[in-house]
Amino acid sequence: MAQKSFFFRNVSETFEFVIELIPTDNFDPENKKVINCDEKLKKIFGGKDSIGFLEFDGLISPHFL
């Protein structure tokens, strides 16, 4: 199966897209600003077990040219 490719103009568009893809059970129940990463998200976010929303830009930026 071929992978889909997506084009995003900026980090904000990417943020909105990724947040929509994250299942609600990946959000920390005590702090909804923390995302608990599954194996797919760990590939995007540098192997971290969890990230905060404020870390998102810094972790996603290396994926842009």
TrEMBL record:
Q: What InterPro entries does this protein's entry cite? A: SWIB_MDM2_dom_sf, SWIB_MDM2_domain
Q: Which organism is it from?
A: Hibiscus syriacus
The identity of this protein, by name, is Pentatricopeptide repeat-containing protein
Task: Tell me the Pfam families matching this sequence.
Answer: SWIB
Q: Which sequence ranges are marked TM in the entry?
A: none
Question: What are the DM2 domain coordinates in residue numbering?
Answer: 27-64
Taxonomy, superkingdom: Eukaryota
